[in-house]
Specification:
The protein has helices spanning 2-71, 88-98, 103-111, 116-135, and strands spanning 76-84, 143-152, 156-161, 167-172, 175-183. With 185 residues, it is an alpha+beta fold. It folds into 2 domains: 1-73; 75-183, Ribosomal Protein L22, Chain A, CATH 3.90.470.10. The strands form 2 sheets. Strands 1-5-2 form a 3-stranded antiparallel β-sheet. A two-stranded antiparallel sheet has the order 3-4.
């Protein structure tokens, strides 16, 4: 009989343990489902807040663009010469002489400057003046050189024979120059 009591006790003790295990398993499943749902809601909220931030930044960008339009509405005339067969350094020397000057004064300076870049810049300035008068109906007397810059263009590479059968590289530089004219207020 003692053996039977022990068996009953062990069987009764096993049943509550099994039920505990199943409740733990179901509770862990429910908790994982709950945490997954929480994560999904958090993700949805994050995407909503991110979308709101994106909309806010778009609105601020639009405001900035409209502000810039009102500032840059003054008339501008441009002229560009590309691939001029002269180094941008040589043009920059002459360009520094006329930057910020009135157009007539700049033409006089270019006419009497004994530099190689003066010819190129004189022709370019005349073109910019014509663009300003014909395309933008700007007054010749109010025009001045707001910007002038010369960037390096592609370099033509040539070879010249040198001593002992060797060759020397010759670099024929080009430049891209731009003049921007505005009216004085």
């Amino acid at each position: 009989m003692a053996d039977e009591k022990e068996k009953k006790e062990t069987t009764t003790s096993k049943k509550p343990a099994e039920t505990k295990k199943t409740t733990k398993a179901t509770s862990s499943k429910t908790t994982t489902a709950k945490t997954a749902e929480k994560k999904e809601t958090v993700k949805k909220e994050e995407t909503k807040t991110a979308a709101k931030k994106v909309e806010e930044t778009k609105n601020t960008v639009k405001v900035e663009k409209t502000e810039n339009k009102s500032e840059t509405e003054e008339l501008v005339a441009k002229a560009t010469v590309k691939y001029a067969r002269i180094s941008s350094r040589k043009i920059a020397i002459v360009a520094n002489l006329i930057r910020g000057k009135n157009v007539d004064e700049a033409l006089a300076i270019l006419k009497f400057t004994p530099k190689a870049g003066a010819e190129v810049l004189e022709k370019l300035l005349k073109s910019a003046i014509a663009n300003a008068e014909n395309n933008n109906q700007m007054s010749h007397s109010k025009l001045y050189i707001a910007e002038i810059f010369s960037n390096q263009g592609p370099t033509l590479k040539r070879i010249r024979p040198a001593a002992k059968g060797s060759a020397v590289r010759i670099r024929k530089r080009t430049s891209n120059t731009t003049i921007v004219l505005k009216e004085r207020v």
